[in-house]
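@channel sequence for tomorrow's demo:
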Amino acid sequence: MRRVSIATILLFSTSLFAQEDFSQCVAQLTEKAKIQGIAQSTINQTLAKAQQRKRVINLDRSQPEFLSTFEDYYSKRVNTWRIEKGQALYAKHRIFLDELTKQYGVPGQYLIAFWGLETNYGGYKGKIPTIDALTTLACEPRRKTFFTNELMTMLEVIESNELDVQTLLGSWAGAMGHTQFMPSTYKGYAIDGDGDNKVDLFHSEKDALASAAHFLHQLGWQAGFRWGREISLPDGFDYALAGRKLTKPLSFWRQLGVTSVYGQPVADIDLDSSVVIPSGYQGPIFMAYPNFHIIMRWNNSQSYAIAVGKLADQIAGAPGLVTQFPDAPPISITQVEKLQRQLQVLGYGVKHIDGIIGSGTRTAIRAFQQDNGLVADGFAHPEVFEALNAIYQKQKS
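structure tokens (generated this afternoon):
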């Protein structure tokens, strides 16, 4: 008689319970969909066939070991292939893009840049069935309410646009189509760009580009202005003035001696702007304008916003970065947690030990740098780790 290990029994039991929990969740979601007026025919195509995807759960729960540096992020996204492909597609769609610019105020090179960063111009839109991804996450406790709402919205989108469910593939989080819209964004901002009286961001390039223009316009894109530019800071610059949340008129920065990276003074106008330093004082530094913050409303990442802006610039024929990236090793989350603990013990006001270098940690680093004769840019340079560890160890002894 074949023996079955306790581990195998436990694994089978856990799997069985998970399947039962998922089935119960789908039943509850089905009732919710009916209450919200979703047709039974749509439910039959979607929730009735939904499968739990363990990969989605794993990706939702996974945490990186190292923090991604700006150099790593940027270099992987603003590369020669993406620039040249973007230029070709810009030329292909130029007449249509010009029409969108007249209507929405967003220059075509930005729309192409968003498209390129989101899906490699439609080359990779994701391989996970959208309904499976959304249903799986709606049945997970971590963000249950958010994904339940997104799932219900997706059912509405499918129904109103008569989309073929079998072809709806996207990211593990339910972002989809050429421009990776979440269902709520799809419902709220997607429009018909190709004139077929249907909105299909999965298969229609013109629908995707028009929808991106409409979305950015509704977010508040300022027509006639760029995203920002690479700049140079004067000697003795007060790095406490840096950060995207601190805005000043361009005329203010001009008076301080801030110039373009080519040495020309920035414009003497009242346009709100911020100094952004993504890789420390030795790396590329940028002046961010209001449209930079609009880009961040699409994707709340400073690195993403810079990548979109610089990719758009180069698609339109402008040069790339002038300043080289500093030679800095990658930083692990464990290292950051240690840094945060040491700053906290030394009285620098770090509230959360989370391995994330957010605004609070940057403020603490800047204060430490000021107290110890380092350039106070709030960036976790190797010398910050070294000086902090030396002082911490000295205080302990």
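heads up for whoever presents: The two ends are 64 Å apart (CA to CA).
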